[in-house]
Amino acid sequence: MVIRTEGLSYSFGSQQVVKSLSLQVPQGSIYGFLGPNGAGKTTTIKMLLNLLKTGEGSIFVFDKELQTNRIAILKEIGSLIEQPAIYAHMSGRENLLNRAMLLGVNDARVDEMLALVKLSNAAHKKTGQYSLGMKQRLGIALALLSDPKLLILDEPTNGLDPNGIIEIRELLVRLTREHDKTVFISSHLLAEIERMATHVGIINHGEMLFQGSIDDLQAISQPLVYIETDNTVDAANLLTRNGYEVADVNNDSLTVPFTSKKQMGVINGLLNQNGVTVFAINKQQKDLENLFLSITKSN
Ligand SMILES: Nc1ncnc2c1ncn2[C@@H]1O[C@H](COP(=O)(O)OP(=O)(O)OP(=O)(O)O)[C@@H](O)[C@H]1O
Question: Which residues form the ABC transporter domain (predicted)?
């Protein structure tokens, strides 16, 4: 395991915001650390980076205990929390050169990093003129300069447009597949994490609700087929008679568990042939809130 915590807890005054977390982050994984705002993600990340002193419990990174091996461990971690520290009056390349000098890293690595995060074309532009997505990618390039084995990113896609999100996602996948990194990334968006993560940990109110591989997660976050019809009761009866498990019925719509696109076509045909007008039929992914409900139920 690249990160392993045991009974990790933290309190601000009398408010316990991280409760006995046991994180298990495998080598080479993209570990999505998911939870709604205020769940305790940033506090946990700050402890992993030794920016907050561990409350209770212990943290092992690369199988070494953090407190007693701080310098050796932190050298191998690149991180991005909140906004990256970027000088707006300098170009992307100058920002990287500046940091490279401080770290004693070879200048050649600067151009390598610019290429890796796809900023070569904007290398000489002042970062004050960068889009938010470009700034985040520059932040990741800065974090990667010293060639760390582990990258810890706190909500790096916050506020990005869909294109910006896709670019970050592709970059992180490349980093793990081609550059042998392990990525720990926090987010409050399930759909975003599901598309890139190999492993997930889901927390709420500081407590771990679920931890496992993305396949384990998908087994409990099964999507639904959402159907809008002119007569949901007739539709529900018809579907039940034909062996479908109707999950939910209300005045305008009903849902059944999704199994395949083909099955959606069959359902559509069945309803239409039996005089039920289908206004809409689509696959509906569960959001974090619905997932919490299914996790709590299955527990
Ligand atoms: N410096 C602080 N002093 C007191 N309470 C704090 C402090 N920092 C965070 N908290 C509280 O700790 C809890 C967890 O916050 P944290 O920032 O770790 O959550 P988060 O999951 O990262 O959420 P967000 O995505 O909103 O940052 C929240 O209730 C927050 O109000």
Answer: 3-230
